[in-house]
Amino acid sequence: MSNSSTDTGLRKGRLGVVGIVFFVVAAAAPLLGMTGAVPVAMLLGNQAGTPGTYLAVGLVLLVFSVGYAAMSSKVTNTGAFFAYVGKGLGKHAGVASAFASLVGYITIQLAIYGFIGGVLSGQMNASLGINLPWYAWAIIAWVLVTALSLLSVDVGAKVLGVLMIAELLTLVITSSAVLMNHGANMNLANSFSPTAIFAGGFGGGAGIAIAFAFASFIGFEATAIYGEESKDPKRVVPRATYWAVSIITVLFAFTAFAMATAMGGNNDGVAGYVVKASTVGTTVLGNPAGVIFGIADDNLGGTWMSTIMGWLVISSCFAGILAFQNAISRYFFALGRGGVLPKSLSKTNKAGAPVNGVILTSIFAIVVIVIFAVAKLDGIANLFTWMSAVTAVAIMFVEILVSVAVVVYLGKDKAVSIWKSTIAPVVAAVALAVGTYMLMSRFNLLGSLAPANVDPTTPEGAWQLTGFGWFLVLLPFIAAAVGLVVSLVNNKNEKSALLEDILS
């Protein structure tokens, strides 16, 4: 704490479009998505139609980005979501959305801590004979992330940039090799036609694939969080948003299409390959990463690429944790500066980082990791699956609020086109509402929280949750309610003036 200052402003002018895109694409952890989410979406969802699902979801989020980017040119605040909602729907709604957003970002970081701990535990034991439990590796990652996030954000951007470029190259090289080797199997209709995308219906395969696709994009919306630290927020943030969503969309759709092509380009081939490549013992999808690893081995001669991917999955997780550490700490910073949380959270250190926000974020993480370790819960089967499911619901709920706020706020500005102020955000709100319904109805599958004797992959299994499952799926809404109460209480004292200044 000796290096901290009483400044309540982040250092400006340090991030351009490329730096912000690095943070955001890293947060989406594309290699993690390809090794984890995509194989599951293929087998339990719409098989060969999964690439089209990712493309469709990406287009929905691009439409959302129209209003979101337009709002960023009017409002520059590290709270982003909460500031936008507050501008359009009032400060009480803004604070409620901020609490829901915090739940989303904190849980996704916790999820990745669980995943990196589990992966490192298995990989280090198999490769180097180092046998440590998942939580030991998670704590090592925690130490490194906390240290880096206390440094200048430029350092974080450089670290994320190197990791992300390596990660993207492995996916592009593998996908290109597949399409060159299996050109005869390419079938655009089987992957991108409406029939393929909606195969199985919203209550079945299509709904499952849509749920996993939306969950895979979490993190793209963080572009506006770095507005105060960008060189020209009114220009940089909109560009970074469009670039980030476009890169993630193309990467997921292209790689998923290459994977489907390698499996034969049809539903039967995809389902058969995923079952064979992911099964551990008698457990189907026991190792979903085996799908893309096997494809890489088959198409690039030997195991060199899958070995590289195996280590880059770890770096992808680390990059994601660091990106969310920065996002969470800046949310705490904004809420502290606005008087909603203690003012001490608005302090920055000499490097320009929101030091107390970083420390609080790290405290949350280490406490949960220790609780799961003491309870002898698994890093992947429990921490990763439970927390990532909560994240998806939280962020999409807030995105709906943002879309409505954009309509209310920009609808009054005659200088903004009706496409940006009304049409795009309304379309986005409707599409996101449908996506949120899909996520919540399939929450039991995302978080493995279905009651005994209930098959969550069937239409009848939708909305069937354990008591703990209902608590988790409702947690973002509970957080929003708490935020609303906090805002109403603060409205009766001098703290409300600070929040009014932030949102005015």
Primary descriptors:
Amino acid/polyamine transporter I; mainly alpha; 72% helix; disordered N terminus; globular; 504 residues
What does this structure look like?
It is a single chain. With 504 residues, the protein is mainly α. It has a single domain (17-503), classed as Amino acid/polyamine transporter I (Up-down Bundle). It has 20 helices and no strands. The longest helix is centred in the first third of the chain and has 38 residues, at 91-128. It starts with 16 loop residues before the first helix and ends with a helix. Mean pLDDT is 82; it is low at 1-11.
Q: Strands, helices and their partners?
A:
Blueprint: H1 17-28, H2 30-44, H3 50-72, H4 81-89, H5 91-128, H6 134-149, H7 153-181, H8 188-192, H9 194-197, H10 205-216, H11 233-262, H12 267-278, H13 289-300, H14 304-337, H15 355-374, H16 379-410, H17 418-441, H18 443-446, H19 467-490, H20 495-503
Summarize the structure.
By secondary structure, the chain is mostly helical.
Structural class: mainly alpha
Q: What is the straight-line distance between the termini? A: 32 Å
CATH classification, class level: Mainly Alpha
Q: Tally of extended strands?
A: 0
Number of domains: 1
- Supply Rg: 22 Å
Alpha plus pi helix count: 20
Estimate percent helicity: over 70%
Query: Could you name the ranges where pLDDT drops below 50 across 5 or more consecutive residues?
Result: 1-11
Tell me the series of helices and strands, N- to C-terminal.
HHHHHHHHHHHHHHHHHHHH
Approximate shape: globular
Query: What CATH architecture do you see?
Result: Up-down Bundle
According to CATH, the homologous superfamily is Amino acid/polyamine transporter I
Q: Give the CATH topology.
A: Amino acid/polyamine transporter I
Can you summarize the main beta sheet? Answer: none
Indicate the proportion of strand residues. under 5%
> What's the oligomerization state?
single chain
Overall residue-averaged pLDDT value: 82
